[in-house]
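Exercise 7. Given the encoded structure of a 462-residue chain, write a plausible sequence.
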């Protein structure tokens, strides 16, 4: 296996050592970043006179040719992506390729590549989040009046609307977008020129390479620059948090698409069938998102475990940073797209959802609130309504079945005007406090969400 080192070694490493330490197949994820960073480094070497301008041009031309050809031209019998690109560069420009590594190390090189990769992925991830937010906003608008049961403890609690439910997921994505912006800012600083750990004696211009690569600034300390992987932990944590929320959406789709709920029918394009049961329509994509969320969580804890107690300076342990990073980002972005597809193509069973609000005693709180508004202490109102619920259950009726006569029989102290608050539609209509599902509150919330969505990026909301 080809390596960029070995001059002081008298024996070859074993095949197992080579295989165990090889990273080329994982590294191919950022082959472009490695080339782009190398171009910036070569240009800087030529500008400051460490290389001649002609040597720098040869290197840049060769690197650009590699970029044009793509990764299929790279040799894979090498240790890592840096070796693969330098090997190919030798084939294209000859011995001058050996000058590219002047004043840098693989330590600052891989740190630069990884930061560039994370920055690019975070930008794309923010676009993905915005796209899903846009759909949730549309659905929130469309279904702002569609009644459905609201749940706590997975038990029916109070009536809400489907549009209100969608907006809850909208605001969760807004927080993730805010996190992504902060992580991007922290990540977008340049390690290039830090060399192995202590900088270099060559008169390099780190500001020049930082500017060319689009970083905010060079990292001030070379040892920190080559040792830090906290930005990867940040990205992994973000992916885990996003996947947690996507798994909640997935669980809702799994439950709601079952016959027991019947709130939604998922499209053929996002479901699968059974090899022996022809009637089955399985929400497999939602289940896979739910399952792979565990992988995203594990990826964060894996790297946290790797980094725990590592002394400063590059350690080969940190080679384990990139596989979980690539895995989590891929799973996260694919899952966002799948949630988008499932929601966009879903057939919402609005009559079934509205019917689910009948007879579940979910307007009991409205009755207690009514009594409180008439001067009854809320704790006493709560007790009275609880007794009414018990009486209804014992007689096999629900709140909506109460007549003035029956109410007088069960709770003679309650005026019959209280019966006016027992419909689910009326319950929702009265809830117009900030953030509630009532029509006025939803109008304000939709306006707020639209304003936030139309702004560039993800402004903080809380």
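Solution.
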């Amino acid at each position: 296996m080809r390596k960029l080192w070995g001059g002081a070694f008298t024996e070859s490493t074993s095949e197992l050592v080579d295989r165990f330490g090889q990273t080329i197949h994982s590294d191919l994820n950022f082959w472009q970043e490695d080339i782009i960073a190398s171009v910036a480094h070569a240009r800087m070497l030529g500008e400051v006179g460490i290389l001649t301008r002609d040597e720098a041009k040869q290197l840049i031309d060769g690197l650009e040719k590699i970029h044009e050809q793509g990764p299929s031209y790279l040799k894979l019998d090498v240790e890592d992506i840096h070796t693969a690109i330098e090997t190919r560069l030798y084939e294209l420009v000859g011995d001058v390729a050996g000058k590219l590594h002047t004043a840098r190390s693989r330590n600052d090189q891989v740190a630069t590549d990884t930061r560039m990769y994370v920055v690019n992925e975070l930008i794309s991830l923010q676009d993905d989040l915005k796209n899903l937010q846009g759909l949730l906003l549309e659905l929130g608008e469309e279904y702002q009046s569609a009644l459905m049961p609201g749940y706590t403890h997975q038990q029916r609690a109070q009536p809400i609307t489907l549009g209100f439910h969608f907006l809850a997921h909208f605001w969760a994505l807004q927080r993730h977008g805010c996190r992504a912006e902060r992580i991007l800012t922290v990540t977008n600083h340049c390690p290039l020129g830090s060399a192995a750990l202590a900088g270099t004696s060559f008169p390099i211009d780190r500001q020049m390479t930082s500017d060319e690569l689009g970083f905010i600034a060079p990292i001030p300390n070379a040892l920190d620059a080559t040792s830090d992987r906290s930005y990867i932990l940040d990205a992994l944590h973000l992916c885990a948090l996003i996947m947690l929320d996507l798994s909640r959406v997935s669980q809702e789709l799994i439950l709601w698409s079952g016959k027991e709920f019947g709130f939604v029918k998922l499209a053929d394009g996002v479901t699968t069938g059974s090899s022996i049961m022809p009637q089955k329509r399985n929400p497999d994509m939602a289940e896979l998102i739910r399952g792979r969320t565990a992988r995203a969580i594990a990826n964060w804890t894996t790297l946290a475990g790797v980094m725990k107690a590592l002394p400063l300076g590059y350690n080969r342990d940190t080679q384990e940073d990139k596989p979980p990073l690539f895995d989590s980002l891929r799973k996260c972005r694919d899952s966002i797209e799948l949630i988008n597809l499932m929601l966009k193509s879903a057939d919402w069973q609005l009559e079934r959802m509205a019917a689910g609000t009948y007879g579940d005693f979910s307007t009991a709180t409205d009755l207690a609130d009514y009594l409180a508004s008439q001067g009854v202490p809320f704790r006493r109102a709560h007790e009275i309504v609880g007794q009414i619920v018990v009486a209804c259950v014992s007689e096999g009726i629900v709140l909506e079945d109460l007549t003035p006569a029956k109410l007088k029989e069960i709770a003679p102290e309650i005026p019959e005007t209280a019966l006016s608050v027992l419909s689910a539609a009326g319950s929702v209509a009265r809830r117009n406090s900030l953030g509630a599902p009532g029509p006025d509150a939803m109008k304000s919330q939709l306006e707020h969400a639209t304003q936030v969505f139309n702004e560039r990026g993800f402004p903080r909301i809380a």
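Remark. The domain at 15-102 is CATH 1.10.275.10 (Fumarase C; Chain B, domain 1). Students should compare their own answers with the one above.
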